[in-house]
Fold each of these.
Amino acid sequence: MDDIGFILASWLITLGSIGVLAFVTLRRARQLAEHVPDEAKPWL
Amino acid sequence: MVSRSTGTTTTRVIGIAAIAVLAWVVVSAFFITPADFQQGESVRIMYAHVPAAWIAYLAFITTGITSGISLARRHRTLGFDRVAGASAEVGVLFMGLALITGSLWGRLTWGTFWQWDPRLTTTLFLFVTYVGYLAVRNIDGDPHRRAKRSAILALLAVLEIPLVHFSVVLWRSLHQEASVLNPDGDVRLDDMMLFTLFSGVVGFTLVFVWMVIHRQRLATLRDLQQGVGLDAAIAARRNEGAAIAGGGQ
Amino acid sequence: MQPVTTNDTAIRLNDAVVALGGFPALAGASVSVGRGELVALRGANGTGKSTLLRLCAGLVPLTRGSAQVFDVNLADDRASVRRHVGLLGHRNGLYDELTSRENVEFTARLVGAHTRDVEDALARLRIDSRVASTRTRALSAGQRRRTALASLVVRRAQLWLLDEPHAGLDAAARDELDVILLEATSSGATVLYTTHETDRPGRAVPRTLLLAGGVVASDSPRQS
Amino acid sequence: MKQALVVARKDLLVEFRARLLLVRVIPFALLVLVLFAVALDSEPLILRAASGLVWLTMLFSTLLLVQRTYDVETQDAALEVLLTSAVEPVNVFFGKLFAAFVQLLVLSVLLVFGAIVLYGATVSGSNVVLLVTIVVSAAWGLASVGTLYGAVVANMNGRDSLLALLALPVLAPLLIGASRATEAAFGSQTIDTASGWAWVALLAVFAVVFSAAGAAAFGALMEPEA
């Protein structure tokens, strides 16, 4: 059945790109957070 | 010891909840919900597609509102601007996903990847508009100027969307072509399917909230880092100036 | 239009920082300039002279510190300062396809000056009728500079900001420019200009600010 | 208002001297019409596509013209002088809008004639009024969006591609409306004249909305880049 390929692709693309964006966001934030003093971070 | 994370208890709770809900949605979408009597297995794409489209619109509404607030406030802090930007970034992601999953689903149900129906067409233009918005946002410059310019662009987009939508609706209706098979409308949903769809919306909303908080904090870090670097640069420049002035006398 | 108040201070900078792409072009400049003053800005290349002018013109945002021009706080509102400013930047701001006269006329029409003022300004900057009717594209650097100065004269601004106005002018034009600037101050305008010129003998030296490293390093009052 | 006319007059004088419209934009636009005909290679198809091709060509020509009108302002920093010369930004907006409108009007009239000559489109007597209204309102809409978004990117790097990315989605309703209305004016079988007038109403709303938005936003957008 052809459908299963399309269905799997939809889900993989969806979950995959959400995961990639989350990962990239966290990694970049870690890089930057080192250079900023804690007292300047409003969320701490 | 400098904190290296942008996470807090709140975001961790949201993140874990998002993962848990999405895991349930995947399990339910693939194994628990039945195939549709008309569309067959392809209806399983719906549980990703519909929430993604829904969140994309939520994101752009958020961007519009926060941009308006950012512009209206006399003494501008950048908080609302950063939320507007973060929300647009997440919105573009989800709208891209909605378009991709939608066309895969369309291929299965309509037999074509794309139909020029009003909703799809409007969505596509909305997507391109916000890609442009992000392109302008990413140009370096003074953050306050960026905030003002992007807020104006976002409000112009709010103005543009009804015009685009109205014109494509009129465009299709005047042509009087056979009405397009509407995938979500034709699906007869049982309780389990509805609950899974609802879970998908909840799960993606959690992802949206988590992502906006984190990307907003990331934007804050970017602006702050520029400021931190600035202190050092100011000191260096003043020293250099003092040396020249002192040496000259 | 925002009324120009009777306060005697035209420009007041306090620890003004202007960051351009992360670089502090002005690194905490403080200075106060009174109404009707003529001020020369000196300093090596890259010390922040042009940025100081552009800050006062409301063209670049203030990053830190405070800056007021005619009682307008530049941190809040840069746009309303611009109405009072006449600017001569590094570049002349001319339209290549228009003639020298048309360029000056354009400014004159915008500010509601008379045709007579255009002719006066052209005459003072010794732009003869042949040059005046040549497209600025075809003019020499000095002629273009003089056209831009003629536009500025027609403009009759409250605050004149000139970036290297003497550069590229011949000796006679430089002397005439000095007279024009002095006249402007005596009619109440405030004039700031940057210069690399060495002092010419027999000429009054205006108040001079020396910039170094993005700050005002010294401030020497007017000498007769 | 007087200042707006001064700015418009200046823009038109510069364009008249540079003859950009005559030398580059009009040949470009007519060439596109010819190339479309060659590419489609079928007379009924060309006739059917004529109105869409005219307005698609107008869209791209607008981008060219708008880039040009802001190049003139930025190449010698004239924009900075304009900003610092007691001119209300809204007057600069309407001045530039009006100058762009005049040029686009000339161009669109030429393109409609081009479609009649090259594609064999026909306009019957009563449809002339419709066609004139379309051309005027669409040219005004193009000019207002172009002037507005041109200002957004005027001081940016890579502004040419950015202008297209920003302005083209906004212009989508105008493209649809003008194309369909012109189709009606060309006496198409699929669209009647009444529908054509409905589209003109959309074009008019579009022009008014973006003129007003531009007047409101232009001052804040006209910021020189540092």
Amino acid sequence: MITGYFLRQGLNRWIIASLVVILAIGILVPAANLLLPAGHPLHVPSYIVALFGKYLCYALLALSLDLVWGYVGILSLGHGAFFALGGYAMGMYLMRQIGTRGVYGDPTLPDFMVFLNWKELPWFWSGFDQFWFAAIMVMLAPGLLAFVFGWFAFRSRVTGVYLSIITQAMTYALMLAFFRNDMGFGGNNGLTDFKDILGYSIQSDQTRAALFLSSAVALALGVLLVGALGASRYGKLMVAVRDAEDRTRFLGYRPEFVKLFAFTASAVMAGIAGALYVPQVGIINPGEFAPANSIEIVIWTAVGGRGTIIGPIIGAILVNAGKSAFTGLFPEYWLFALGALFIAVTLFLPKGIVGTAMHGWDALQRLRAARRHEEGRHDGPAASQPEAAE
Amino acid sequence: MLIIDNARLHYGAAEALRGVSLEAEPATITCILGRNGVGKTSLMRAIVGHHPLTSGTIRFNGEVFARRPAYDRARAGIGFVPQGREIFPLLTVRENLQTGYAGLPRSERHIPDTVFELFPVLKDMLNRRGGDLSGGQQQQLAIGRALVTRPKLLALDEPTEGIQPSIIKDIGRALTFLRDEFGMAILLVEQYLDFCRGLADSVSILDRGVVVHQGVAEDLDRPEVRAHLTV
Amino acid sequence: MTGAEVAASGKPAGHREDTILYLDGVSVSFDGFKAINNLSFLLREGEMRAVIGPNGAGKTTMMDIITGKTRPDEGEVFFNGNVDLTRHDEPAIATMGIGRKFQKPTVFEGHTVDDNLALALSGVRSIFASLAHRRTIEEERRIVEILETTRLSHLRHTSAASLSHGQKQWLEIGMLLAQSPKVLLVDEPVAGMTDAETAETARLLRDIARSHSVVVVEHDMGFVRDLGVKVTCLHEGSVLSEGTIDHVSADPKVIEVYLGR
Amino acid sequence: QEDTIKVGILHSLSGTMAISETTLKDAMLMLIEAQNEKGGLLGKKLEAVVVDPASDWPLFAEKARQLIEQDEVAAVFGCWTSVSRKSVLPVFSELNSILFYPVQYEGEESERNVFYTGAAPNQQAIPAVDYLMNEEGVERWVLEGTDYVYPRTTNKILEQYLLDKGVAAEDIIVNYTPFGFSDWQTEVARIKEFGSAGKKTAVVSTVNGDANVPFYKELANQGIKAEDIPVVAFSVGEEELAGIDTGPLVGHLAAWNYFQSVETEANASFIEEWHAFTGDEARVTNDPMEAHYIGFNMWIKAAEAAGTTDPDAVIAALPGIEVPNLTGGISKMLPNHHITKPVLIGEIQEDGQFEVVSETDDLVPGDAWSDFLPESKKLKSDWVDLKCGNYDTEAEKCIAETAMAEPATEAAKSN
Amino acid sequence: MTVTRSIAALFAVLAVLLSPSMATAQDSDVALRQAIAGLGAEKGYARLREAINVVAQTGDPRAARVLGALTEGDVYRRADDGAVVIVSGRGQQLTLHDPVTGEAIGTAPKSALDKVRVNNSVRRSVRAALGGLTLAAGDPDIRMTAARTLIATPDPDSLAAIEKAISDEEDDAVRDALENARAGAILFSGADPETRIAAIETIRNMGGQQALSLLARMPASPDQGVLQAAEDAAASVQKRLQYWGLGQNIWYGVSLGSVLLLAAIGLAITFGVMGVINMAHGEMVMLGAYTTFTVQEVMRTSFPGLLDWSLPIALPLAFLVAGSVGFALERGVIRFLYGRPLETLLATWGVSLVLQQSVRTLFGPSNREVSNPSFMSGAFQLGEISVTWNRLYIVVFALVVFAVLLYAINRTSLGLRMRAVTQNRRMAAAMGIRTPWVDALTFALGSGIAGIAGVALSQIDNVSPNLGQGYIIDSFMVVVFGGVGNLWGTLIAALSLGVANKFLEPFAGAVLGKILVLVFIILFIQRRPRGLFALKGRAVDA
Ligand SMILES: Nc1ncnc2c1ncn2[C@@H]1O[C@H](COP(=O)(O)OP(=O)(O)OP(=O)(O)O)[C@@H](O)[C@H]1O
Ligand SMILES: Nc1ncnc2c1ncn2[C@@H]1O[C@H](COP(=O)(O)OP(=O)(O)OP(=O)(O)O)[C@@H](O)[C@H]1O
Ligand SMILES: NC(N)=O
Ligand SMILES: [Mg+2]
Ligand SMILES: [Mg+2]
């Protein structure tokens, strides 16, 4: 039924192509890591798998932001909060999986609770020993936060920078709250020292490969979802709300619901990205709530090109790969490089990398069509033959 | 005074003006007519410098306006009443008018009496925000604002749009007055034919980015000329 | 009862039950400025009414009140005789069947002309329906029809952002048609149109009025005359004169404040 | 190309922690350069691999992985905040490499792959409190900290310690502020009020990082003098004081294991070398730098003893290694991967240096598991004999091993 | 002035004051030398404190010299003979002085000397040991300090001395303080109930935390009346303190608010007026702070006499530095982005990274020292509130900047042009306004203001490459909370957030307080979706 739905929404070939690419990466990279011997020229070291797994999660996160920013025009400066909540939900599951292998050997309490003298597990930790429960919370926690937050904000018609800033306030407040040890989430050290997931050691190459593949599949599903939403009538409605929210009201639409749906869906996507991210990087801590992190998500999206589906993915991967490379290659000067990249993109690629490329592509197509048209008119079919040969 | 020669203008790949030539003389009212989307506003944009020409020239008082920015043209004496009013919404009516001081020497920085004589309602609303005014009031403010700059050439893009009949008549009288008393060159884009006919010294009709007719106001009574304006 | 008497009594003639729009004793002020002052106005089902009045008389504000954009400080506003519009917000009022064309054309600039019309088409309004919705043949037919009526067919796949002012006017009229509401509120539809188009619009509105209730605000007296319907002249937020076009345009007060000599 | 041994340097050069960590990177570069002049290690030159984890904790893990897997470094010197250390721990144990961690921290940890050259709480906090109690006669305590794990744990330990020493509960207040907190008016006024009750009062500050400068500025401006209410800090060293006008702060205290002002020959030549290396006479030295100095020398010595830089061999060789520290003693790597250090209490001087007012007679061995926390009292770390970081002395077994032997049973999971 | 210096000055005065009358006694010289030798003989601070008392008890005014030197850390023990000497000079070779006469007695290498270590408790002993004698000092400030010390350390034994001092005292303020000291001493003496009740009354009138502490510490009296009086007095002092506490919170709130205002006000221009999501705003503040640092460095090294003038000098420079960077930023980047406000976020974020790293490269990553000029140091007492000078100056400065800016934006023709340009750039150009120039000036103005905010903030916060990051979020909150584009809104928002924060802090703690303020902002925006001072009406939608 769901697939039917997606198919009915005419997905364009760009999306289909990117789906293929993402899934191919999802399969080939781990395969090259596991199946090829270390010396093989095509062998992908585990280090790269871990790195790219992380990028895929960031890509999904950027895509989720694009859904609200690119389509509905909600510039969320707090999307890191949803990512982090998903991450914490997963982290709590992973913590419970440690069992007696913690440093104090306590079968239920995570280490940080033991040494801060907690006697029993707080209520909100219960259930997280079950994967299914954690999986639901991965989506529910950010989804619910987004729903409640959005419900009030959109109904009150909080828009524009006002909305942006209160999303920032939200993530900032959450960051401060999660910093507090009393909250029961490990304070600023966060949750770490994970051992295994679903019974598989989190450090084994096979688990890594599986996580990598899962991230790729999640990203592909994200692309499919955003693509289908964008192509549907709802997609047009999102853009209409973005461009002239008031006008949609006079047509009888409820822009608050349009936004709420996108915002919540996007938060769930972000939460899933966070959940996949945590086992791959091995830690979740309140730093993920930091406003600057959320701004970075916006940056990735803008670099790639907002409102395009592939753009945010490329942006996230490119910026993070750049960061990984630059911090190692020229650790003292990499901020210059990254800063310059951002400035250059805004100046020279005003719609982001993909946005500008697509714009250029469209213009080229139109120009060609126009030329063909003209030539056809003035010079007859003979002149248009070389065109056809191309 | 203003000589436009073979002006072409593109929006991306779309061509809005395809070689327009036009002149505006001091102390004359030149009326530009044409159906929707034929390029009237585009022509105005080209004149005031809001959109660059692809080719062709615009000369004002002998000076070539190649890529001169809009503010230089305004300072050279082009006053502009744009389509859609373009009031500064958060400035008060007084401040909206005062924006016209920018190109004036200090001694001339006051609002000419003609403005309030023409549009008494503005006087009552000096401290209200421009954006709060009704559509017609905004239109009046837009015209008043252009007059504050003491232009040599006044370019008006459908200035009567949304204005009540009595004031349309006043505007007509005012334009004649400005032409006769100050020798102002007036370039008037209009759809409202009767208004045009009553005022114009000469008319140009645009169609699909080219001038298809040029002549005197009385031409508008000729059916073959009017045909350019019907659907 | 003449328009003048109506204004004087402050009570609209007729019963609320018979009306499609009923405004009584409505006032609204902005920072102390009374934009609408004890206004009473009623429109019968299927009626078309022309509203004129000086700039700043409160015509647009009246539409704002009916469509829920502005809340009146006092007074009653009813739709269909019994629906209190002051209790509903814009989307609710729009779905009840009150459509509006704004004085300053407002269209979705990020969309093509076609999409603008498609979004306006009556029908699907809920999120979940719109998720699954695909354009029906009937809808396609309506869009083509409206494109023809508004002479925008050649611009169907053009972005609304690159329309000229007049073309946007037409697109907005088209959107109103697509919405097919019970009551159409049309604010200055012919501003920026050529005389021929103006005549065409008058014809179009007369057509629509056969099956809908319409309120038209215009300053173009020729156009108003063309419509051939009852005219209400507002001034300083209340009714100054009401009646046939000849009656109203002969009213010395109307001439004084509006038409000029 | 083949005959270098790579050493990873994992300190933030940008972001919030750059303030503190950049100096450590420079110190490491200096130590490596000096070692190369002495002929390197095992006949090979050392090569520093510097990366910037940018104060971004997950990035620490990524960079650690890069250093070990891609650059194949023999050991890594790095991290400042506990969270960054926590973030890299799994990487070091998975890839079996070595981390030297040079900063005072909250303890409660002992990893096979990590060597803790900074102070554990018993090497800093407890002696400082003892000093105030005995020498200054302090009876009331304000425990002022930044709201995160290190201050929380340290304060927890201190609170218990003070209560054990007979301090009344109402004579202790604990307060936390966020990272980067800058408006200290209310807090300082409260301290002042708390201290005006007649009993001698002191502030024990675990305020970290950027918040210190405004804290001290406010203390100075509200006229809290060291003679009235001394403040003893665990995270304020020469580097931090370089950003403050220390005139009004003279007499406030800090507890460290090293001060630049310590007068020993080793220190004098270290400072000289530092100034020469940085080309800046004004650059100060501080405690974490000394920790790296000790750690680096220990690593060199252990590698030489083992004859290889292979992590397993070096990890095995490190405990028992003794190297001179800069304060005139010989620090020793203990089986729990912590080291012995002297504890110095210093008073801030007008020139931004500390004057030592007290120091322990002997070096204090670092205690991985605090004796003042109920759950950790019974734990012991010994990587030499017990081969265990968290040996339960009551149950007489290694928790890590027990867990390994019987992986989380269903019962344990659902408990 | 520092603690040690002021004590040293005290002794200097004392020595001059008392020396002529007691210059001769030969035998006291021996006693004094013996006592002083004790300073060097003993190990441990407790013994040292005893030795100090011994020195003080000689009653010899010349003891002041060596005790003063002791607090300065200038007293050493000669390693070979154990003699106590006062040293001067720096470096390895030090000049030695006789501890009694102060005459130079040769030099010695540092290695041949052991420093007599002092700590806070030793300094306190020195101060206490000789505290009473300073009551006769010529300088009323010194007498005042002495009187205050006496209030803090009530001692019935000093009653007689205090009585004498009161009768000799000419300065009213000092006499009042002495009377309070006497009352305090009486509380701790075995005086009869009436006298004690009268003393309690005096203490009650003195008020303040100190009065409360005196009343609490005073030895229990068997007399019911005294007990009652003490209780009442404590209650009334407490009540007064509560009111003062309220006032104090408001003051702290206003002062925090003014910091927020300063940080935000430049952003109110670049973001509020121009609509640029200016992520580099914090870095403009930082540039201002570094300008201050540089100015102070130059002053310190080249014109030490002008150090107090460094802030007035830094203000225009900071405005210029940050303003020019803003100007360049606008011309180089922002101007291509008008009409695409969201893209400015990306570009200015990039700029902020570059600026941060530039400063880090140029000035180093660590904090730089910016000192308070003397007129901004310390505090004065307003009732029970201690008002620090730097905060007061910052409040006043913030309000002045605000007023000037308000005038510039709303009353000058440049301000009008700025607003016109930002509302409709194309139309403004068609009115003859040189839009590029106005744009650049507006951005430069906003940046320049941020720069001078940096001068002020350097007085209370870190001067580090991260300085700006600490303020950027709060600044956006303030501007948005107040209503974008409304300067008054920015003012009210800054002050009210400051006050709210300071009222929450004592109850909730700083962390929870901050969280609550953020939640409050979120909720408040639901009620007023366009901020505190939302513009209403059509004009906004237009
Ligand atoms: N938000 C507001 N604040 C202040 N005044 C307002 C506001 N909205 C409308 N007004 C005033 O109310 C009056 C009525 O405005 P309205 O737009 O309804 O007039 P109108 O009849 O539509 O005029 P026009 O024919 O010019 O469009 C005008 O004088 C206008 O200035
Ligand atoms: N910003 C734009 N981008 C792209 N195309 C545009 C733009 N503005 C106008 N056009 C196109 O250029 C043509 C001329 O438009 P213009 O606005 O000059 O017409 P006009 O004669 O003023 O019409 P109207 O009477 O409706 O105001 C139209 O076909 C329009 O679609
Ligand atoms: N270990 C610390 N100081 O975070
Ligand atoms: Mg036009
Ligand atoms: Mg209107």
